[in-house]
Automatic annotation (TrEMBL):
Pfam families: ABC_sub_bind. This is ABC transporter substrate-binding protein. Residues 1-26 form the signal peptide. PANTHER family: ABC TRANSPORTER, SUBSTRATE-BINDING LIPOPROTEIN, ABC TRANSPORTER, SUBSTRATE-BINDING LIPOPROTEIN-RELATED.
Length: 337
């Protein structure tokens, strides 16, 4: 009886040990799956899908996308499928796009500029979000603090130096400082409103009269620019996807009155603004890609602080400079377009 008792105990022990090991293995497997997150993998060559979201298409956004793609590829992410969702300038369509993302499968959502970032963040997606070029993420409501993203989104900010824009513009064309400065922007874009407020405050400090004119869509831009050019010595356009999409019309209208436009994006200078002081679009796209690389390899969005990119470049439009009689300084820090 003693021998039989010992044999039964050993058998029971082995059965118990096997069951325990199996349970531990299963638990470890489940833990490994839950900690990896959607699309998060240390293997950079793994297939991934990324969706860009934009309120409208323009050359600046295209350059941002290319900068993002190039940097992500440079970091070893060579098996990425990209898609672009464009709201064609319609806010309600943008919100629909953001809502539909809840039922679509992507490893990362990349909204470009403030309107898209707001729409995507408000949709409260489970998919991680890394935005590109939001002027003031906190004021826009996409996070409560730059240091601790708390709404599922992080990314880059392009808080532009309005003081440098005005100083550079009036240095190139001193007559621009002889009268009021007009500000043209879309009242429906939070980033544009923020940029206009900052320039207005700066002009107040300088004692320069400021005249603002707002638009709600791109079809209103030419008429607004014509009106401002008749009242002002120069016109400033903040970061604004609506006005930027009509920039050639804005600059042409201003030039008819001999008035320069000071821009906040290199594409604005390429579209006829006399000058711009801004972060290069490919540069800020690459900065967001650097953050995206961390998220794609498992770092929670909440642990990737937003970044204010300040690598500014100064751009001048040669054609507009010639039209205004401006001699562009021989300066290696100036990009002539």
């Amino acid at each position: 009886m003693t021998i039989n008792h010992t044999s039964i105990s050993r058998r029971s022990f082995l059965q118990f040990a096997f069951a325990g090991s199996a349970a531990l293995f299963a638990a470890n497997m489940l833990d490994g799956c839950s900690s990896s997150g959607s699309g998060a993998s240390e293997d950079k060559s793994a297939a991934r899908s990324i969706c860009f979201v934009e309120v409208v298409e323009n050359d600046a956004f295209v350059a941002m996308q290319e900068g993002f793609k190039d940097e992500l590829a440079a970091q070893g992410f060579t098996n990425v499928t990209y898609e672009v969702k464009n709201a064609q300038g319609d806010t309600s369509t943008l919100n629909q796009i953001a809502s539909q993302l809840k039922t679509e499968s992507y490893d990362l959502i990349v909204p470009i500029a403030t309107p898209a970032a707001q729409a995507v963040t408000n949709a409260e997606l489970d998919t991680p979000v890394v935005f590109i070029s939001v002027a003031d993420p906190v004021a826009a409501g996409v996070m409560s603090s730059l240091d601790t993203p708390d709404k599922g989104a992080t990314g880059t900010s392009n808080d532009l130096p309005v003081d440098e824009v005005y100083a550079f513009g009036t240095e190139l064309y001193p007559a621009a400082a002889n009268g009021a400065c007009g500000i043209l922007y879309c009242s429906g874009e939070a980033n544009a409103v923020s940029g206009a407020e900052k320039m207005h405050a700066h002009l107040d400090e300088l004692g320069v009269e400021c005249i603002e004119r707002t638009v709600t869509n791109s079809s209103e831009c030419q008429q607004a620019a014509t009106a401002l050019a008749q009242q002002c010595s120069c016109i400033y356009v903040p970061v604004d996807s609506v006005v930027q999409s009509a920039m050639t019309l804005v600059t042409a209208a201003a030039l008819e009155s001999g008035v320069p436009v000071f821009g906040s994006d290199p594409v604005m200078a390429a579209s006829g603004a006399l000058c711009s002081v801004a972060v290069g679009n490919a540069t800020i796209g690459a900065a967001s890609a650097d953050m995206a690389a961390k998220v794609l390899t498992g770092t929670p969005v909440s642990e990737v602080p937003a970044e204010v990119v300040t690598d500014y470049e100064r751009d001048v439009c040669q054609e507009t400079a010639d039209a205004l009689g401006v001699v562009i300084p021989d300066d290696e820090n100036i990009v002539v377009l």
